[in-house]
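The material for today's practical consists of a large collection of protein records. There is nothing in a record beyond a sequence line and a structure line. Backbone structure tokens are a discrete shorthand for how the chain folds in space. Nothing more is needed to start thinking about how sequence determines fold. As an example, a complete record with its sequence and its structure tokens follows.
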Amino acid sequence: QVQLVESGGGLVQPGGSLRLSCAASGFFFSNYAMTWYRQAPGKERELVAVISSVGGTTNYLNSVKGRFTISRDNAKNTLYLQMNSLKPEDTAVYYCNFQRGGKPYWGQGTQVTVSS
């Protein structure tokens, strides 16, 4: 069955960096655009970044442009999110996601906390 497993979250000081990973299995990873979402306490889940199936096209939430980079390794069935210059407002649970046949699939999420 479809599995998305995020990792790489943690506690980091403002200005620091983290690299999130999402290991995918149970579907043809290279056929699908992939996304990162995040959800902060008391807020709605928001789209952070999206990457096309072969990685040629990316788009970002305005507030993370220039700081975050989404990438993928289709040979390893893995999605990444490099996060630099982190701010306290980036604190959230980060999820990877894709849609197949109109149905969304989600991982369990990984917590990112930016605090001094």
